[in-house]
Each structure stands twice: as C-alpha cells, then as structure tokens.
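From the shared-data thread, chain only:
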Amino acid sequence: MSEDHWHRPLSRIEPGDLSGDTTQTSGMARREAISGKTVGAEKLWMGQTHVGAGAKSADHHHGESETAIYVVSGTPAFVFADGDREVRLEAKPGDYIFVPPYVPHREENPGDTEAVVVIARSTQEAIVVNLPSLWQAGPPPAQG
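Structure, as tokens:
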C-alpha cells in the first residue's frame, strides 16, 4: 500500500520553538527550524544563524550540502579563500548568498548590531565541519 501524499499535515514552527540543538561553530549561533528531527523532513534543513556585532565565526564548511542564505538583518560578510587570497562578500538585508558544497568559509559581522540570516540546506542534516583555518581545509573527499 502506498503512502497517501495528499493528506499529510503541514507543520508550523514559531520563532520561540527554534532549537539550538544542532552542530555549532564558535562565534555564531545556529537555530534549527525545519529538519528530520523537528518535522520529519527528508531532504531539507532550514534555520537561522546569528552573529553578534563585531564577531566572526570560526572557519567551517557544510560537506556535501548546498547552502542558500537570506540576510534578514545586519551587515554580515562571508569570507572564503580564492587561491592564496581571502575574498569578502559584503551583504545587507534582502541579499542572498549561495555557498557550494565543501567550500570553507566563515561569517563575520563588522556592524554594530547582530546579523541574522535564514539558511536553507539541500541535506536534511545540518552538516557542519569546523576547520582550523581556511588555508588548511584541504580538498573535499573523492566522490564515488
């Protein structure tokens, strides 16, 4: 017997229901909204990231996951390595940022107010690989 895809319930997650029970990176706070854990999602993870005024996160990447970011408030910068130099993408509310799989990066907030972004990932798990440095990340694992 096949599953009835027409009669499954929708889920609502209120702002106060977001969970911090997900992998974290120093210098920022991730809050999980949509995931397998919270609503039974099978292919998607969605939540928020908060970076305090003047703060920056540690370097990290998100494994095989594609990450889409929407800037809600603040003026975050997204920093990644291009060869032997660092590149900064300055962002403002209303901007979107795309982070490809395995790309080492960090979030910085040079502003004087908290930066808040909404994040959607192509994997149901919030994959976070914390790194010692953008320059020591190494290549991604070979694909099968």
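The chain has a mean pLDDT of 88.
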